[in-house]
Amino acid sequence: MKNLAQVIRETWGHPAVTKLLGVSVAFGLGTDPSFQRPVDWEAETMGDVYQLALQDAYRALPWKILDLLRVASAACGPVPFVLKTDDDVFINVYALRDLLEDLRDRSDEKNFWCLVWEGMPVIRTNHSKWYLSKEKYGEDLYPHYCSGSAYILNSVVLEAILGLSNRTLPFVSAEDVHVTGMLAREAGIGHVQIGNRYAFASTDEEKIASGQTIFAHLGPDADIRMEQIWNYLASKKEKTNRSSDGL
Predict the structure, then answer these.
(1) Which pLDDT value is given to residue 243?
(2) Which residues cross the membrane (predicted)?
(3) What pTM, to 2 d.p., does this model score?
(4) How many CB atoms lie within 10 A of CB 201?
(5) 27: which strand partners?
(6) What are phi and psi of 9, to 5 degrees?
(7) How far is 95 from 118, CA to CA, in rounded Å?
(8) pLDDT over 70 (residue 168)
(9) CB-based contact 89:12 (threshold 8 Å)
């Protein structure tokens, strides 16, 4: 069975595709002795895996993402944009490239571009993995934050977030809330809503192929769906190219 990193490399993150579009794809994870040998092999063979010296657990997610953003900053230097995404999200990289081109003149703005969650209540149900007590976080609503499935930031935001990463703030184990909500509010970073480019419950292949949907969260069976959607998208691209060539 293929892991999702391998599936991504064979679909929307294929080196031939990303090189053509001028983007780079890398994978980040924490430590887990149960899968260390295949990780070592993949890191040495593919050269695009970054493993962090922290446990790959839900409560460690904020530190994991901040460490990976720190790696991206060190490895890439000032770049127009960085995209953080989960591995079970399909990305129409062609439509993403077009969106980033449209945003190029805004690459110095202090904003996240994402599906923005507004006025989300703090979960007080103590059996929930998102539970947060009143003592640890007194407010009843979270600040605006991005869906953790995928969000875009520029070098200005990246450096601002990393500059505050060691600041003592109420700890929220939800990475998207902590990084794009708590730290963003502290740093004076805004959010630009592009929620119409996301799909969750229904991943319509035609909407993805047309570029209407850029980020499609696939969830269970993501490896199978990712290949199916990529094959559909590649087929549509080929037909468009053949038509343009008059064939």
Answers:
(1) 63
(2) none
(3) 0.92
(4) 6
(5) 49
(6) -65, -25
(7) 25
(8) no
(9) no
